[in-house]
Amino acid sequence: MIVQACINGARPRDFHPKLPLTAQAMASDAAACVAAGATELHIHPRGTDGRESLGAIDDTVLAVRRACPGTLIGVSTGAWIENDEERTRTAIGAWRELPDYASVNLSEADAPTVMDLLRKRGVGIEAGLASVADAQRFVGLPGHNRVLRILIEIEEQDLSTAREVADGIHAVLERASVRRPILLHGMDATVWPFVALAHQGRWSTRVGLEDGRQLPDGTTAADNAAIVAAAMAIFRVAPVS
């Protein structure tokens, strides 16, 4: 069970005054998150224009790695970043400073090819499942058990609906006898209920400005480190058997 810090995602500049958008800002923010208890980092590097870019991976991963030696660093391969399958593949093939892992959304058409490319490059895979259909597609892939972990990421904002989707994904994995670590997280309204659910299920979770800017009491967090500290407070309590 770990708490991963997802420090920026695709959020716009005005989402939060402490949203880190440059390599150095991400490095400093990441170090603060690790100090607050985060075990791993998930980052979305940005180009000089402030937009997400797979071409910015090298400089950003290097800066974060220098600031957080020994901490696993992950990135996104979301199709929207380059908005072109060939550009996405080319960018991944050109990485020099390899992240430790990368998330791949099974809802995206090119996911199997991206996963194969990451394996060839020696990059771990977080298989992102946001629906039962994603889970069914995932378990149908050859070598689906050769991933670093399963990322159950729920975007539905109605909590009961979100729980149903998460339970449905887990049921598909159970029926297929998938035995990979699971990281469960929600978004915005469901962030903290899903942190609690992950803790109770002895799964990992993630928090940070990519997923939401509020603390458990509904107030706006000062920064990513404050969000991580709140999640760590939950995870330090032994789960009820």
TrEMBL record:
Residues annotated as transmembrane: none
InterPro entries membership: Aldolase_TIM (IPR013785), BKACE (IPR008567)
Pfam families in UniProt: BKACE
The name this protein goes by in its record: 3-keto-5-aminohexanoate cleavage protein
Species assigned in the record: Mesorhizobium shangrilense
